[in-house]
Amino acid sequence: MSAHTAIDTPRGRGKDAPAVVIESVAKHFGEVQALRGFSAKIHYGRLTGLVGPDGAGKTTLMRIMTGLLVPDGGSVTLAGFDVVKDNDAIHIVSGYMPQRFGLYEDLSVMENMRLYAQLRGMDADQHTNIFESLLDFTRLGPFTKRLAGKLSGGMKQKLGLACALMAKPEVLLLDEPSVGVDPVSRQDLWRMVQELTDDGMAVVWSTAYLDEAERCESVLLLNEGKLEFDGPPQELTDRLKERSFRLTGVSDERRAVLSRALNLGTVGDGVIQGDSVRVVLREDAGREEVDALADEVGAKLEPVQARFEDAFIDLLGGGPGGTSALAERMDEVKLDSDIAVSCLNLTKRFGDFTATDNVSFEVQRGEIFGLLGPNGAGKSTTFKMLCGLLKPTEGEAHVVGLDLRRATGAAKSQLGYMAQKFSLYGLLTVKQNLEFSAGVYGLEGAIKRERIDEMIETFDLKQYLTTSPDALPLGFRQRLALACALMHRPPVMFLDEPTSGVDPITRREFWTHINGLARKGVTVMVTTHFMDEAEYCDRVALMYRAKLIALDTPDALKRASRSDKHPDPTMEDAFIHLVESADMEDQARADAKAAA
Known about the structure:
By secondary structure, the chain is of the alpha/beta class. The protein is 36% helix and 25% strand.
């Protein structure tokens, strides 16, 4: 079913006319200049990406386009209507899905849809055909009676999209719709948006995933309220011709090699890619320093195709250096055993529902171990059992040799846990949160003051000490969460989607710390939906439907998923291949059972 058949979207303004016209728009909040006066046009039938680091002004621009904020200067017209003078019309011709979409979790899927129809001035009883079309379009038809609070992350985003499309908008504004969504669900979101743009709708997609921005037809790149780039992503990527390289053959030393590369004056950015290190040279820089590093570590340096992410980081002046000040202050972690974390036949049931089913693995001291899987696969439940926050129904779990069933308190003192939705205390200031965390972990006196000062300096929190965590930019909120989890310098770290929603530069800062900690012998277990981050892991375990379906190095998982369609697969390709293979195996078993 095509998009215009599915949702009957109106198109009366012609594909050549701009859907949104931004003219010298400016917005300030006190002394903070959120938008500094720039102009741009967004067109019908096109997917436009809105990208930039935390605090760049993306959400402010979105809220102005929807008529929720009034600009202090300039103007914005959407579908021919001024967002200020024609505010009522804006809410009819636009659909908006904010970053934290306001689903009512104690209402069902259908009840949420009916409510949003009424809020848009529609008679829900007279528009059952629209509900049916949207349910078909989003594939939510089988789940109309399920409470929104019981949906997976991907299904919540699909329901949010259905509600945003309720009034058949001409312009659809999506503020980071794929944050916290697994690659399979992201594919579904992309499919739906592609159908909408094929039908002529203008869609603006704000995103922290630069591989998503690369798939957009046009990109607006904001930084500190200014428009730094406006055009096809490939146009920006082309500026990096012959500046992207890969150091291969570094395998066991890749973290040390990355650190050294990032500290070279000629290197602007670098990341780990499985067993190799990818680097980007600064503009007009020669490759002599990188060649010398390759010779010294016995690596091969080969040119690779530039990515939009390379260009993004380069445009913003490059990423952070390769040295973690936090890790440098730590002593080498020494344990009685090389096994830091282990679980055997770990199982957790909630009534009739099995969240984790017979999971077993071991994690070495100093290893970065990735736990991946679609939304609802059982990753967070497994994490919580390994942290002593949930009691297993069956099986065993050990951290630094301590049995979590019998020595929960002692085990907790040996680990740091950064939750997926970290519950910083909103009634406390940033400094009070740090003081509280230090006290919880038993730090006192001079050592407590020293560690708090250390975290304030390392994570650049000084300007926010009297601020509530709820008022922090997302990147700083995550920094505070990581600081609280690391306060007592634990030998084992559990990081549950630590960089979800933060910009690529902040992600690199986090991984500089994580790599530095691992080099000091800290064991790191991490979940993530950023498949590029999985490349940093020594090994990756993939969970699906509560079971462990794969466990190997990132490069081995990619090799196993090669096909004619994907001769050089990415981690995202490998993820999707493994999930689809598991589905086919389950179906084959079901067919065999039925035949018997």
